[in-house]
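call fold(seq) -> tokens
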Amino acid sequence: MIQQSLYFVVHRQSEASGTFYVFVGLLLLFIQQLTVFMQADLQLFQQIAEQLIAAEENQPVTPIVPPEQLYQQLDLALNDEPADSEGYEKALTDLILNTPKTTSKAFFNQLFGGRNGKAVVGELLSVLLNNSMYTYKVAGPMVGVEKVIINKIKSLLGYPSTAEGTLAAGGSMTNFMGMLMARDRFDAEIRQKGVQQTLIAYTSKEAHYSVPKNAAFIGVGRQNVRYIESNEKGEMLVSDLVAQIEKDLIAGYSPFFVNATAGTTVLGAFDPIDAIADVCQLYGLWLHVDGAYCGSVMFSDKYKHLIKGAHRADSFSLNAHKMLSTPLSCSIILSKEKKHLYDSFSNDASYLYQADGDELNTGKISFQCGRRNDALKFWTLWKAIGTKGLTQMVEHEFALAEHGRQYVLKHPDYEVYSHENSIAVCFNYKGIDAKKLCTLLYEKGKLVVGYGSFRGTTFIRLVTVNAGNEQVDIDNFFKTLEDFVQEYWEELFT
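ret:
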């Protein structure tokens, strides 16, 4: 079909000069060669992908490439002359097979993991299309894909029709956007004149580290972030929040923003959003809910109570690349009132916004200008398994965590630190130093799992965000850990 279309185009352009057949022949030869080149690239991709998937089964933890040997062990050099085919394929294959396997059943280290084929298809297609998401002119139907996702999440949250949302490069950036909108709502002149007063932001001591970074970025300053105490479960203490606000008001400062967390980084705790919303309403503060880790509980009637009151938040963020098995990154932020997205992020650019109106030119509500299509991979997953499938995914991850928590509760050699309704299982085993055990498990190629701290105690943190895992994989985790401790007992205590 493409060749036929090009035939007629070239015919109309060149038949008068008598060079028609020459043009057609050269053009079709070029297309044929281009197709062959692309097929070769896709075949190489498939070949490497098959090797990677096999390696995940046979060796789920990638052997460490020591940093001091990185450039000797792998061919990373960029040269003036192109690599030959064999050298290129070997360098690429070696690089991929020596990269940490975050999708294997032995990876429990970060707040993401696993692989879902339906979402991967969307990611690969977005790469092939290579659209940017700032205007309808270049994104086309992909704007609709993004809008459909935002509208469904609005509905699940209970947000009004006046709400709007967008995607950004990660949870830190969506938290940044929430804080920036809060600043601009507090004082619209800041956008022109800069910060002229001492603004104060509030967040739990257990919140994500992006909060003080973002305070620095927007001119508020790290020292003007107040860290609110938490209870024994890691949930923000509302009484301490009120006390801090009152103290700052007496000092003549200007409170403007509260960050609540749906799934703290270490314990996976949920701040009491409804009670915090009462405080924000009383003092006129912007409430942002950082749901990057566990905001996806909105998909589950069984666990949605953990974010009770989220519909009252001024902004809400979540990461589909965490609990919803979407490839990195897929970070979403919603503002309860769309005007705040426009007020903080819109800027005229006649060379860019030339048609279709603001509703379809999504660059006017995003932090970036050029922005990759992160919505398609989430849409392909959601389309394939439906909202019910996402619900099952969320509830399965909680079930895996509860299975792990019950395991450590039933075995006297373990001490548990996390609580129910969390997808983090925090524990120590036989009093072994958590940092040392996690490091040695990694170095010996057995498991990739991290550690965290709460109230001065450091412990192993097993997260169950890989929806592809089953209870047997959690059992295998503990068996591997126990066998490893028995084998390396002396090394662990020297």
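Residues 2-91 form one domain.
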